């Protein structure tokens, strides 16, 4: 069982280690050192170690801020780090990039070839004006985390966290679902009064970042910042169309069939949870565990059945205070995996309520953790760990599927079949949502007028929701609630990072399909791909894992046919 004090101990940062003075002299020494081509490998390793220490410090402070959103001292320390340490570090990193790029006669080695190209592109994108503007942007996203972290929902006279209320949306009792949905909608509407103006502030900041970099729009800026070189916006637009054509009808068919079995007159918003569709037999939600410690035990046994190496990694996370799973007031209501590169330690934050969805999310986030472990062991340079973002969700999403055959200790045969069906349907139901999220951002950052208003944002979201979720009946309801569905974590915090989830879910299904034929070989490919880190182009990483880097209509249609076949076997 992970003890909270062990988590806090893991996250501790000495006061002096969060000050710029702690890093400045080492950056200066690297900058002043004479550098010939033969000296680059050792110099790079020293720079990497320094960058890893700074990154780990920032990540620890960020997690502390997410765990204590109402603690002013914790929030202020993180703000100071972002405002007083990150800007000079960015300037120092830019100077070191330019120094490396200017070394005469230098030829990158195979393990630094892609890194060298990325450094060259990042150096070209750098603008001094964007250093301070980046601080403004960080302050704005921090405000979003604080607002959402402090959100309360009043239901039945009780103040609940958002995850606690969302768990009630899975109830077989339609009246209970509707009450939970309306309470959450009311809370969201109240929070919207602060989120709406914040989004317009973020939009202005992001447009200025692009303009400072001499780029036509924020999409072009973000494309460069995210190093998207293996596909362009056109392929994203093709994906949007493919999902509308190939996936939306399939999801509508599945959702309406469930509604018919339940005798529902139509599918109302409280009848549709894309991550956990209603049970057609109206059984109560599965509750495979109670509390974070029990979820850790459940996962430990599943990983032990899958692979001893993975099981050992998870045991290490438990022992070293690298899991904080419980939902509580003042904690940011999201789930993620972060990383401390100096010690090669991943950290998972969640908000569990005892649901089967929590089981899936834990496997997902720990899949990220495995990526950190394996790439960190194999890649000495911190920049070569993890992977490009088009691949980074594959280790997590594939783990959702690879653990399916190792849950018999936690779920009865009937519940395991139910969990498996939910996972498969969840992939299909996720794709329209991903297309909608991505399409909204293409419009927001490229086509939206300069004087765009919140009403314009709402109107565009409403248009897209009608396209991608036409099977949900909103008659008689306040459509403002529907129109503000863009109030979502990634829209505020990590713009344009969402289509990757869809790419990787498609790849994860492919990996699982391969595992059904040869589970041992599939798992070995999985781990081998993780060890490559960020040293190979995206298509090569997909191939190493046993998948294809595709998201066109033909490919998506083929995977939907595979899912149909799997569902018929239930």
Automatic annotation (TrEMBL):
<protein>
    <submittedName>
        <fullName>Peptidase M3A and M3B thimet/oligopeptidase F</fullName>
    </submittedName>
</protein>
<comment type="similarity">
    <text>Belongs to the peptidase M3 family.</text>
</comment>
<dbReference type="GO" id="GO:0004222">
    <property type="term" value="F:metalloendopeptidase activity"/>
</dbReference>
<keyword id="KW-0482">Metalloprotease</keyword>
<dbReference type="InterPro" id="IPR045090">
    <property type="entry name" value="Pept_M3A_M3B"/>
</dbReference>
<dbReference type="GO" id="GO:0006508">
    <property type="term" value="P:proteolysis"/>
</dbReference>
<dbReference type="Pfam" id="PF01432">
    <property type="entry name" value="Peptidase_M3"/>
</dbReference>
<keyword id="KW-0378">Hydrolase</keyword>
<keyword id="KW-0479">Metal-binding</keyword>
<keyword id="KW-0862">Zinc</keyword>
<dbReference type="InterPro" id="IPR001567">
    <property type="entry name" value="Pept_M3A_M3B_dom"/>
</dbReference>
<feature type="domain" description="Peptidase M3A/M3B catalytic">
    <location>
        <begin position="170"/>
        <end position="555"/>
    </location>
</feature>
<keyword id="KW-0645">Protease</keyword>
<dbReference type="GO" id="GO:0046872">
    <property type="term" value="F:metal ion binding"/>
</dbReference>
<dbReference type="GO" id="GO:0006518">
    <property type="term" value="P:peptide metabolic process"/>
</dbReference>
